[in-house]
Design brief:
heterodimer; A: mainly beta; Immunoglobulin-like; Maltoporin, Chain A; 22-stranded antiparallel beta barrel; five-stranded mixed beta sheet; 5 helices; 5% helix; B: mainly alpha
Chain lengths: 752, 213
Amino acid sequence: MKYITTSAFLFSFCLCQAQVKISGTVTDKKNKPLAGVSIQLKDSYDGATSDSIGNYSFTTDEKGEKEIEASSSGYLPVSQKITIAGAPISLNLLLKEQITELKAVVISAGTFEASDKAKGAVLNSIDVVTTPSANGDITSAFKTLPGTQQVGESEGLFVRGGSATESKIYIDGTLVSNFFYSSTPGVASRGRFNPFLFKGTVFSTGGYSALYGQALSSALVLESIDLPERSEADLGISVLGLGGGIQKLSKDKRSSWGVSFNYTNLWLGFKVFKQKQDYFQVPVVSQGDANFRIRTKTGGMVKYYGYISHNKTAFRTNDIDSVVLKDAFSISNLNMYHNLSWKDRIGGGWRINTGASFSTNKDDIGNELQDANNNKILISTPEFYAFKNFDLVNKGVYAQGRVVLEKKFLGLNAFRFGADYFYSNEKSSYTLYDGTKYEEQVKDNLLAAFAETDIYLTNNLAAKLGGRLEHSDLMKRWNIAPRASLAYKTGDKSQASFAYGIFYQNPERKLLPGAAGLDYSKASHYILQYINQTKDYTFRTEMFYKKYDRLYKTGFNSNGREVATNANGLGYAKGVELFWRDKKTIKNVDYWISYSYLDTKRDYLNYPGEIQPPFAASHTASFVFKRFVLPWKMGFNFSYNFATGRPYYRIAYNETQQRYLVADQGKTINYNSMGFSFNYLPSLGKQNAKVFSVFVIGVNNVLGQNLVYSYNYNHDGSRKEAVTPPSKRFVFIGCFLSFGTDRSQEAINNNL
Amino acid sequence: MKKLLFMAGACFMMASVFAQSEKFTGAMKKNLAALDTAFQNPASLLSVANNFERIATAEKTQWLPYYYAALLQVNYGFGLQDKSQVDAVADKANELISKADSLAPNNSEISCVKSMIASCHMMVDPMQRWQQYGAASNEAMEAAMVQDPTNPRPYLLKGQGLKYTPEQFGGGCATAKVELKTALDKYATFKPAGELYPDWGKDIAQGLFDGCK
């Protein structure tokens, strides 16, 4: 026992005498000193933190073979073996930067991201709905970004010289076939979906990922929200109608369900704001939806969203070919949409992202010629009058299944691949004035397989390479589409990227069934981007060149309908775009400016040659300004959209030359429209309030500026008529109540 | 002989445990002494945080050093001028507090730090993040009040939060003072469970309270 005590004493004595100093400098690869790095002698308390010039120093009582560890957030930890004898140790350490999402370059050419979390997001989810000109319509918010056109006479996104049918919309990976309410002549329909169903949006104006296809110009990818923050109920009353819903979050916060119902009736709105059309059935929409969401044990999500809606509208417009006659158009639509998705970890570092969707759509469309007393009449000479009396029933059934597997390795590097199957079956029945019925059916099975990899060479250099293989039964052939993008960080806040890709698309539904042997239309994209971004501002510029091949030319089929006859069309689009957003310079003010220059021509449909299409303006600009005045509990939002005039044409068949010619053409006046919205939140900040109320006023085209979208010609081209919005301006007034939780922020945004 | 060996072994182990805990206590005390100055002097926050983290990783089974390391990391995060670094620091603090949490579940002090970490994330972009992180911060703060009703620190956090919330949102001095008063009352009677246990914040509460006149 004595021996032990003695030796212990000796041992501790030794320790006291043998304190060894360890010191050195910590630097990164570029020899830049690193401050705040924690240096530790493994399994001991001994260590230090590097100072502002990267120096560290500490003493230790430890002896022998030891390990020094150094770590700092944003850097890969290093460890080094040392032998501590008696002499002081000088040890310089080198730390390598970790490739992290926070620091790494973002592969962003061609895309705009709207998200609250994603780095490099240009808009957040609230912006999507607080932009006055957007009126709470998802796609309209994107019309304040460069690359899009201010097309007001029909729905959809017209991107970089592409038509609306060249833009496809996806929810949780699956294609949405009828994203917008069915078209009515001369009026742009809104999207069917509430913007607050989605937590993130990626809007690609070109060069998009191999995970998506069948869109020559643009992909809008919407990701639905996971579990709600808490249970709640809400109610809204406005000049447009009323709606309400509940969301119930389970006690363990692992699952939720919800239902909502909305009834929209434009009777009051149209009473106050005179519409150009004479509505004999004001637009009425009944819509119900339901959802459930379950968080799995492994942190994944199972989500279901189902939607059913019925709407009808009918109106008379003056017939362009006569002074007293009218066209009475009516439409009734029933639409159903279901989406079930599952994303999860499946072991071995793999993630699965799979989903299925099913939807049906039915349109009952009727048009008749009416006399001054609104009575149906049939005129058979000249014969074209007779064709103004028709009925059309369109039915569509769509189903999709999709699976994507992804593995991440070495930080951000990733490999993903998957497959997609899309079934569509569309039937139409067209009844002529004399009762002759034409029935058509277009069925397609579209199969796709894709693979993509993200490669991060350093934090400063990354590439995304992918490919997509597709087979459509309609086209009876395969296509293969390579995609590539490259991003390089040019500075702390700036980066440059490049994207290239080939994109294929089938003919749009109204051009089908087309001639046999048609090949896919093809677009090749080349995009160059530069971004300089901080939390407070974003500057972004893009140059692009897009080449179209095999666009569809049309002719008349045996039923007298214009369909795709060959794929000999072609075209191009090139341009420059600028975007500037600033949240800082003016206190409490957030604004953005976008500008697009577009040079595009195409030969497709019945065009006689390459011309600038009527949906493309050369210059487009937007200005959005938002300010919230906290003491007043009021928000003011303002937007101004501008576009130079768009061309319009009368393309007519020339009997002597036996081909289509431009019989007349012109350019519309410039487009100028200012929007304004105001919201008031009286219960903001009230502690423990049971009901949160929000009042909203929104005005479109405040200044009542003259908007001309295009011109329609009469049968012989002797007269043309401007296509204008249904009313000069529209004012929206509403009150929204939510119970249980303060969702006032969302409520306003929801309804602007 | 066997018996003797066993006894010697047991003796040795006891001595080692004793020495270990003495070393632990000593190191903890030394760094706890630096805690108050660290709060005043943000430059040393990270270095003291790292000291605690070294103790924590060497010990592995003590929740206190993880707790202090996380507490100082999150305070370092609050003080950062460059907001783009804040999330990484808060994530680091979260990593540390999660380890403390697994060693000492349902601990009121740990819930306080969780609340601070959520607030720290929120500070990066309050307009965008209050819905997510504001709720998380409140939730952790309320949990802390339930887990130990005598703990003054959740009331300090509540009062501090309210003081810097605009009056329109129900904040300001008037409401903050009520919570800070509660905190000060609780500080007057609060007894830490041991000498190494959390006992900070009284001066901060007093300062905030005095600043609200």
